[in-house]
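Comment thread on ticket #2218

A.B. wrote:
> Attaching the input chain for the structure job we discussed in standup.
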Amino acid sequence: MRTRMMKSGIFVIAGSLCCLLCQCARHYDQKQAERYIVESERQWAESVASGDPSAVERILADDFLGVDPKGRLYVKAKMMADTRNAPQYFVSNHVNEVKVRFYGDTAIAHGDESWERHTGERGRFVWTDNDAPVSVDASCGPILGFGAMDAGKSWQPKT
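C.D. wrote:
> Ran it. Output below, let me know if you need it in another format.
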């Protein structure tokens, strides 16, 4: 009899835990999350010309790991330092396009941005960001990873 009560008790506890965990599952509005991601990407791109690392600090995870256009790895602190110094090289940097795809509570953003240096040189970065998890209030989790390719001058129209 006692074993039967213990089994019933374990079943009730396990069932309660399952119900509790199911209620904690994140639900979010994908359109709102997409708008947040696109706006964050725009702010990050423009920080290159402004030198303001606040957007970078807000959107990158503390354990962020990025890959620069030359294939070198970098972390959040390096990105923030580079952002502060970037205006000495860049006049402008603007997002051209961002496409966001959702896979459960993870968002993958693909995009490109155009930049111009003080020397007049122009170019383009093509990148992919991984945002996870997407939270209930659509303020997505921090960007966990980033990969970029410098497309150089190839995007410029021929004159």
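A.B. wrote:
> Thanks. Noting for the ticket: Residues 1-25, 134-140, 148-159 have pLDDT under 50 and may be disordered.
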